[in-house]
Write a structure and sequence with these properties.
- The protein is mostly beta strands and 346 residues long.
- The protein folds into 2 domains: 136 residues, 6 Propeller (Neuraminidase); 156 residues, Neuraminidase (6 Propeller), CATH 2.120.10.80.
- It has 1 helix and 33 strands.
- The strands form 9 sheets. Strands 1-30-29-26-25 form a 5-stranded mixed beta sheet, with no helix packed on it. It has a 4-stranded antiparallel beta sheet with strand order 2-33-32-31, with no helix packed on it. A 4-stranded antiparallel beta sheet has the order 3-4-7-8, with no helix packed on it.
- Strand 9 and strand 10 form a beta hairpin.
- The N terminus is likely disordered.
- Keywords: Kelch repeat, Repeat, Signal.
Length: 346
C-alpha cells in the first residue's frame, strides 16, 4: 500500500524537476529485501543476500548496466540479511554480518566467495565504512550496538577499536573528506566522529532532531546531509539538516519536507542528492506502508524538488548511482518482496 496521503502532504513544499520517468530494467532472478548492492571495478552491480518472507538468501547476482540484465554468480557460504558489503581497494567485496559474526570475500575475477576472519561480535543493521588506508570500520548494530571493529584486508583479521560513546543501531556512517567517519543517530540526537589515526571517538554538537532509520550523504563541499527518520515514540522526522565539519555544527536547511524511514539516498555527479522510497508506519494500529516518492536536494539552494514517482513503492531496497549517471532502484518490499528493478535517467 503506497503512502499517497503522505506524499500529497509533503509534495506541495517542493519544486518540480522534470517529467522524466522511472523505467523498468531487467528483473533480478529472485525477490530481495534487506540485501546489499555494491559497484564492482567494471561498473557492474553485485547484489548479495537479503530475504523474502523471513527466509534469507545465500544467492548473489550481477547487473550489467549496458545489457540491462542479471547474471547469477557464486553463492555466499551462508545466508545473510541486514548485512553490509564494502568494495575493497583490491577489487574484492567484503560481506560482513547479518545475525552472524562471519565475513567473506567475493572475487569478481572468479565469481567465488571465500571465508575470511570472523568479526569479534555477531552484528546486523550495523554500518561498514572503507577508510583511506583500505581498512573497513564496522560500527554498532543489533546485539553489539556500542562496539566497533576494524577489518584489515592484508591480514584478513578483525581488531576491536574504541567503543562509541553511545549505543547505536539504525544509524548512519559517512566518511568525511579528511578520512574521519561521522556516525549519526540511532534514535538519539547525538553524533560522533571516529579518527582512524587515534582510534578514538569524539562527540559532535547534537543534531536538532532525534532520528533513526534516516538517510545520510556526503555533499561535494564536504558537509553531510541528514534527512528524515523517526524517533522512539514513532514520530516522523521531516527536517533536513547539514553537518559542517569545519564548525562542528548542525544546521536545519528545511522543515516539513521529507519524512519516513528506510529512506535511501545517493550522491549524483552534479553534487545533488537523490532520495527514493522508504516506509511509513501508522502506530495505531501498526500498519507499514511503502512509498514510491522520489526527490532531489540541491545543496546550493538548500531546496528540494520532486521527481516523477517510481513505478512501484519500495522499502528495504537499495539505490545505486551508475557510472553513466543513471540511478538504479533495486528490489525491496511493498505488499510483497519484489525482484523488479528500475532506473531514473538524469
Amino acid at each position: 500500500m503506497q503512502a499517497n496521503i503522505m506524499i500529497l502532504t509533503i509534495s506541495v513544499l517542493f519544486g518540480y524537476v522534470s517529467a522524466k520517468n522511472w523505467r523498468f530494467t531487467g528483473n533480478m532472478t529472485v525477490p530481495r529485501e534487506y540485501h546489499t548492492a555494491t559497484m564492482l571495478i567494471d561498473g557492474k552491480i553485485l547484489v548479495a543476500g537479503g530475504d523474502v518472507v523471513s527466509s534469507d538468501w545465500s544467492t548473489a547476482e550481477i547487473y550489467d548496466p549496458t545489457l540491462g540484465h542479471w547474471t547469477i554468480t557464486g553463492n555466499m557460504n551462508c545466508t545473510r540479511s541486514m548485512h553490509t558489503a564494502s568494495a575493497l581497494k583490491n577489487g574484492k567485496i567484503l560481506i560482513a554480518g547479518g545475525d552472524t559474526d562471519t565475513a567473506e570475500l567475493y572475487d569478481p575475477s572468479t565469481g567465488r566467495w571465500t571465508n575470511t576472519g570472523n568479526m569479534n561480535h555477531a552484528r546486523s543493521l550495523h554500518t561498514a565504512s572503507v577508510l583511506n588506508d583500505g581498512k573497513v570500520l564496522v560500527v554498532g548494530g543489533m546485539s553489539q550496538d556500542q562496539s566497533a571493529e576494524l577489518y584489515d584486508p592484508t591480514t584478513g583479521q578483525w581488531t576491536q577499536t574504541d567503543d562509541l560513546n553511545y549505543s547505536r543501531q539504525y544509524h548512519t556512517a559517512t566518511v568525511l573528506n579528511d578520512g574521519r567517519v561521522l556516525v549519526v543517530g540511532g534514535i538519539a540526537n547525538s553524533a560522533e566522529i571516529y579518527d582512524p589515526s587515534t582510534g578514538h571517538w569524539t562527540l559532535t554538537n547534537d543534531l536538532n532532531d532525534k532520528r533513526a532509520l534516516h538517510g545520510a550523504s556526503i555533499l561535494k563541499d564536504g558537509k553531510v546531509l541528514v534527512i528524515a527518520g523517526f524517533t522512539e515514540d514513532m514520530r516522523y522526522v521531516t527536517s533536513t539538516e547539514v553537518y559542517d565539519p569545519s564548525t562542528n555544527k548542525w544546521t536545519i536547511t528545511s522543515k516539513g519536507a521529507v519524512g519516513g524511514l528506510f529512506v535511501k539516498t545517493v550522491l549524483l555527479r552534479d553534487g545533488r542528492v537523490l532520495i527514493a522510497g522508504g516506509d511509513f508506519l501508522d502506530p495505531e494500529p501498526l500498519i507499514r506502508s511503502s512509498t514510491n516518492f522520489a526527490a532531489i536536494y540541491d545543496s546550493n539552494s538548500t531546496s528540494w524538488a520532486t521527481l516523477g514517482n517510481m513505478n512501484i513503492a519500495r522499502s528495504h531496497h537499495t539505490l545505486m548511482a551508475l557510472n553513466d549517471g543513471r540511478v538504479l532502484a533495486i528490489g525491496g518490499i511493498d505488499d510483497y518482496t519484489t525482484n523488479t528493478v528500475e532506473f531514473y535517467n538524469l
